[in-house]
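Sharing a chain and its predicted structure for anyone who wants a worked example. Both blocks are below, sequence first, tokens second.
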Amino acid sequence: MKQGRSNSDIIKEILEKHHNTPSIPNFEAILTNKDLLLKNVFIRLVKGKSNTHLTRPSEFPGIWEQYYIKLDNNSTDESMSITLRKDMLLKMGLDFETLRRAAYANTLSDIKIDDLGERTGMSFAGQGPAPIVVSNKRGTNGAAAILDYKNILWKLNWECAIMCPSSIHECLLIPIPNKSEAVGQLPAFTNLVKEVNRLEVKEEEWLADNAFVLTLDEVLV
């Protein structure tokens, strides 16, 4: 019976593909130590599933969760990531739900919310609450912060919002008074997302080609 690859074989393959990872302290230990791995696993949102990498459908139709290890080199302030493959969980002795819970906790602990008016200098006076930019403190793969949309809406005291996925790095939330009005405005915002994708965003950083309606109970598209 043919034996599967050992942990050392997997680590060697990753090191060869990511030649700068040996400079990351405890890199090998992270891949072989469950506790270290669970402290460093995060979620990014991507457009579409993967046949190779570890992905799961998100609450947003057409958008998938992808799981990765984020590695920091404190001596150089550099950071890099390793996208997890489907075959790595068994080799590392982890079940998916354990990994997923840790990735959610890590990802949602890093949320950053910016008032669009303050960020851009635009004025929304007399228009109600200003739109919000949802990302993370690093500004990389920050769109995953929208996975916490129910808590975000609750904290903002918004009943409903339209979410425009700016890119894999951030999302824009526009407050709408109620679900009925949001559904009516959704086609116009979807056209806006398509236009911005093609004019402003690198194709590999597109997250979706449509907008979404978010309420405290559901996602509509």
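Comments welcome. The chain has eight helices and ten strands.
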